[in-house]
Every structure is written in C-alpha cells, then in structure tokens.
Amino acid sequence: MKFDLDIDKIKYLKILYADTNGSPVTIKAGLKKITEHEITACIKFEDYFNIKTPQDITLSVVGTNGLYRTKTVLKSYSSDPPYIFLYLEKPENMDFMQNREYFRVPVSYKCKYMVNNNGIPALFDAEISDISASGVSIILPVHVFSEKDSKIEIITDKRIIIAGIKYIRSERINDSYKLSFAFTKISEKDRDCISQICILKQIETKRNNIV
For residues 204 and 106, what is the distance between their CA atoms, to the nearest angstrom? Predict the structure, then answer.
C-alpha cells in the first residue's frame, strides 16, 4: 500500500539498522515531521550513537490502527542535545503487518524455531518472550531468520501450536536477540487458544496490580 499516513495517527517509529560491528539494532523514535521526500525522526541523545550513513534500514510505523513496515534509507543524522535527529528517505510503499487490537502479553514458553535459507533447514530451541493472536516474539542467542516465511512450534501449558510465521523486526537484548514475527498460517483453534492465554494473562496482571 502507498505510504500515506496521517501524521496525527502515528504513535511512534521503530528503526532497525546495523551498528558499526554489523549487528542489528532497533531503536524507538518519535516522529518530528514528514515532507514530500523525507521523514525526520528524533530520539533522546546518546553519546554512543555513531553509525554509518547512508544505510538501508527497516522502518516500522506504529499507528493508532495498526503496525506498518517498509524498507528505506537512513540518509544522515544530526545532534542537538538532548535530541538526535534522523533523516530518512520517504518510502513510496509500506506493508500492513498487524492490527493493534491484538495485544501482546509476556509469557515464558519453550519453542522450536525452524529456519530455511537457500534450501538449508535449521532448527533452534528458543524461549517465547511475548505472544498475541497475531504474532510472537522469541529470544535467541544468534540473529537468524528465514528470507521467506518459516515455522514455529510453541509448547504452551494447554497444547502444542504449530504455525507459519513471517519476520517483522529484531532488537539486541544483552547477549541475545529478540525476534518478532507475525503469524502467516495458523488454525482457528490455535489462534483461539492463544487469545484465551492472552485474556487470562491480562486478567492476572490486573488482579496483581490491584493487590
């Protein structure tokens, strides 16, 4: 779809770029302005923010009605403490990734993550970080994902859920990586099971906050 979002409906941006070591880094940024050819984003000042520009990046746009994702170029940046301003090439198109009505909740399940790149399959044991009826995030010691859709086997307390997944974004967490995916193929029974898990977790969280 065409990149044509109302600026008032954009809550924040997430930018996935490569640091000076080539490792993926995700930062959360505020939207400053959008012109015909450029997007200006801003983050709080960090002394260690020093990356090569220009470079290709993945841009996620979190809006009031959903999550969008696209590829673009981080052209340059400037600092004006307490902020750093990032200047991005305005993309022509974007993909709608998920509806915000699917809220994610933190969980701690084991899973098997299946990757297939260039016809070479690989299987990783991983930990589920959070889940919703539309997607899941996992924690891995390495940064790896399929160029095309892959699969995941989630071992919940109630059942084993097998689903097709599509890579959305990733971020570095200490010595590991958090990879987030959207479900591309999942049975309605399994989706309902995940929805029930999310509802119960939300009720439990509210109850604990009250206590």
Answer: 12
User: What burial letters (b/e) apply to 143-179, b meaning 16+ CB within 10 Å?
Assistant: ebbbeeebbbebebeeeebebebbbbbbbeeeebbbb
- Torsions phi, psi of 37, nearest 5? -125, -5
Each residue's pLDDT expressed in tens, for the chain with a length of 211 residues = 788 777 777 888 989 898 888 888 888 899 999 999 999 999 987 666 778 899 999 998 887 767 788 999 999 999 888 899 999 999 998 887 655 445 678 999 999 999 987 778 899 999 999 999 889 999 999 999 887 789 999 999 889 999 999 998 888 888 899 999 999 999 988 988 888 888 788 777 767 765 5
C-beta of residue 95 within 8 angstroms of C-beta of residue 60: no
